[in-house]
Amino acid sequence: MAEIQEFPCPNCGSELNFDSESIQLKCLHCHSKFPIETSTHIIEEKPIEELRKWFKSPNKELKQIAYACKKCGQTTFINNNEVFFECKDCGNNAMNTEAYGFNPISPSSIIPFSISKSEAQDAFTKWISKGFWYDSDLKDLSITDSLEGHYIPFWTFDANTYNQWSGEAGTYYFEQQAYTDSKGKRATRSVRKTRWRYRQGNFTHFFDDVLISGNDSISQNFVQQVYPYHLQELKPLNEKYILGWKAKSYEKSVEQCYHMAKEHMNGQIYNMSANYLKGDTYRNLRVNTNFTEESFKLIVLPLWLCTYLFKGKAYHFIINGQTGKIYGDKPLNKVKIGLAILLAILIIIAIAVLSKG
Ligand SMILES: [Zn+2]
Ligand SMILES: [Zn+2]
Fold first, then answer.
1. How many angstroms does the Cα of residue 27 sit away from the middle of ligand 2?
2. How far is the CA of 294 from the centre of ligand 1 (A)?
3. From ligand 2's centre to the CA of 94, what distance in Å?
4. CA of 240 to the centre of ligand 2 (A)
5. Ligand 2 centroid to residue 53 C-alpha, Å
6. Residue 18 Cα, ligand 1 centroid: separation in angstroms?
7. What is the pLDDT of residues 253-306, one digit of tens each?
8. Ligand nearest to the CA of 27
9. Ligand 2: distance of its center to the CA of 132 in Å?
10. Per residue in 131-174, pLDDT tens?
11. Helix (H, G, I), strand (E, B), or coil: what is residue 289?
12. Which of 301, 293, 320, 292 is nearest to 233 (CA)?
């Protein structure tokens, strides 16, 4: 039996939600506000060996659990990885406090929402009406019902790296070359050549908080468009910040997220090495990296998610719940684009005609 906890308003017994504007709990009925006690617990990074232990153990299986509402007696079914839910009958708030313990590793800290729903809506309205190529009907779109605030589990990875690189740096130079042109005349032209020189070197780089989403439904490429999150504002996890918001434990496998972080770091190391090596260009770059002091933590970050329909097609966007940074898909106006392509073709034809004349 899952551990279900309720947080009724001490004044009227109604539901309390975490209010992103006041950073307090707020009663939906009598509007009383209650501060959330902050803990001084230090948010620690754990050595990567603790994570490696779980590489081969799969996440637990999803199960439905029944919750009998203490207010109205109705039974609501929820998934065992869902943290917060509401009674489907009376809307009573409840918290499945075991959800974060559903998988082997529980989150240690959280950044609470500071962008409210109305601020998220305003951000959307501003964003959607910007840009010439988009449909002007978009600005009247209402997204109130589909805009949802989610607390998403993220892994952060730290590592110190020692990198040895070697390769060939290329420097361009020009040579005069004789040739016969199309009219049979001899002429000279300047040809670009590359002089190659073997080089090697090493450098250290510390990666601090490489952020990988543990959520399955939004791709990593999509979510990182609304980075950064200011992680210095992380607070020890307190479930009261989650009251009234959607939240789940992580879904991707621990090993998969670790490898995604490694791939990201290796990509950055390769680019840094290329910058050290290159003159005008480079080839045969080899990099050898030694990772030390690897650590991780599991945290929870706020994100607004929305899917909206426009002319029968679905589009997605997301908003960073801490900073308000927005990213997503916008439908292009086909008429405007069609006209632009037509104009470009006409210009090309005109240039061709003029240059022949
Ligand atoms: Zn109340
Ligand atoms: Zn109920």
1. 16
2. 47
3. 10
4. 20
5. 41
6. 13
7. 889 999 999 999 999 999 999 999 988 999 999 999 999 999 999 999 999 999
8. 1
9. 48
10. 777 777 777 777 777 899 999 999 999 999 999 999 999 999 99
11. strand
12. 301
Q: What share of the chain is helix, strand, coil (3-state, %, to 5)?
A: 25, 40, 35
Q: Report pLDDT digits (tens) over 208-218.
A: 999 999 998 89
Q: Which residues surround ligand 2, an ion (CB under 5 A)?
A: 69, 71-72, 74, 87, 89-90, 92
- β-bridge partners, 152: 301
**Two tokens at 253?**
């496998």
* Dist. CA 241 → ligand 1 center (Å): 17
Distance of CA 11 to the CA centre of its chain: 39
Beta-strand pair 281-310/313-320: antiparallel
- Exposed (0-12), middle (13-18) or buried (19+): which is 160, by Cβ within 10 Å? middle
Q: How many CA atoms, within 13 angstroms, populate the side-chain half-sphere of residue 248?
A: 18
Digit-coded pLDDT (tens) for 323-354: 999 999 888 777 777 888 888 888 989 988 88
| Closest by Cα among 130, 156, 125 to 228 | 156
C-alpha–C-alpha distance, residues 52 and 288, integer Å: 22
According to the model, what pLDDT value does residue 328 have? 93
Q: What is the largest CA-CA distance in the chain?
A: 98
Rounded distance from Cα 324 to ligand 1 centre (Å)? 29
CA dist., res. 30 & res. 74, Å (int): 24
- Cα–Cα distance between 220 and 213 in angstroms, integer? 6
Ligand closest to the CA atom of residue 76:
2
Per-residue exposure over 36-70, b if at least 16 CB sit within 10 Å of its own CB, e if not: eeeeeeeeebeebeebeebeeeebeeeeebebebe
Cα torsion angle, 237, 240, 245, 248, sign: positive
Paired sense of beta strands 281-310 and 109-110, if any: parallel
